[in-house]
């Protein structure tokens, strides 16, 4: 399986050169300024629903349109469903018409890590929580101005905290 991914990646190298500078810059950026938790994925399982665990720690994707967070319009913060690290502010949420909660930018660039993903053959930017390593979604360059970014997130990977409530303590 790893050999197949390597061959797919090599076959796409000419296409990589055609990608926009914005995408290549985002891939090169390192956001790992927070200390990652030394906790195996299996230890998160009892803290999450089975579906949330599959999304966060097996890279699964929930069905489009299935998340109640698509219709969440209150003022607040979206935190990682596993470790509760704040990832997105509600002011940056918008309806991308994709069926998944989407944001124009993260709350803090240091809270999300990025890596290339070739699961759909064409390279994408996958992003994850830097504390627990949980898969959140993918970053695309077709978002609204001024940044042009669409942070397309799995709703199961997030928890919404209304602004009037205190943020939960980070899980370790």
TrEMBL record:
GO molecular function, one term: peptide-methionine (R)-S-oxide reductase activity
Domain MsrB, first and last residues per copy: 41-163
Enzyme class: oxidoreductase
InterPro entries hit by this protein: Met_Sox_Rdtase_MsrB, Met_Sox_Rdtase_MsrB_dom, Mss4-like_sf
SUPFAM superfamilies xrefs: Mss4-like (SSF51316)
Keywords: Oxidoreductase, Signal, Zinc
Any matching Pfam family: SelR
Isomerase keyword on record: no
Record's protein name: peptide-methionine (R)-S-oxide reductase
GO biological process: protein repair; response to oxidative stress
Domain of life: Bacteria
Lineage summary: Bacteria, Pseudomonadati, Pseudomonadota, Gammaproteobacteria, Pseudomonadales
Signal peptide coordinates: 1-28
Reactions catalysed, as given in the entry: L-methionyl-[protein] + [thioredoxin]-disulfide + H2O = L-methionyl-(R)-S-oxide-[protein] + [thioredoxin]-dithiol
PROSITE patterns per record: MSRB
Record-level GO cellular component terms: cytoplasm
Entry EC no(s): 1.8.4.12
Keyword Nucleotide-binding: no
């Amino acid at each position: 399986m790893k050999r197949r991914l390597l061959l797919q990646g090599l076959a796409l190298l000419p296409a990589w050169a055609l990608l926009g500078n914005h995408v290549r810059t985002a891939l090169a950026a390192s956001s790992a300024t927070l200390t990652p938790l030394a906790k195996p994925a299996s230890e998160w399982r009892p803290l999450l629903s089975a579906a949330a665990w599959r999304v966060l720690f097996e890279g699964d994707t929930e069905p489009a349109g299935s998340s109640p967070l698509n219709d969440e319009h209150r003022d607040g913060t979206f935190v990682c469903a596993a470790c509760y690290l704040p990832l997105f502010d509600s002011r940056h949420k918008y309806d991308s018409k994709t069926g998944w909660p989407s944001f124009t930018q993260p709350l803090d660039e240091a809270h999300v890590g990025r890596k290339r993903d070739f699961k759909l053959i064409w390279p994408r930017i996958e992003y994850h929580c830097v504390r627990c390593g949980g898969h959140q979604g993918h970053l695309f360059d077709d978002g609204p101005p001024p940044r042009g970014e669409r942070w397309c997130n799995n709703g199961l990977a997030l928890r919404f905290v209304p602004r009037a409530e205190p943020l939960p303590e980070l899980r370790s």
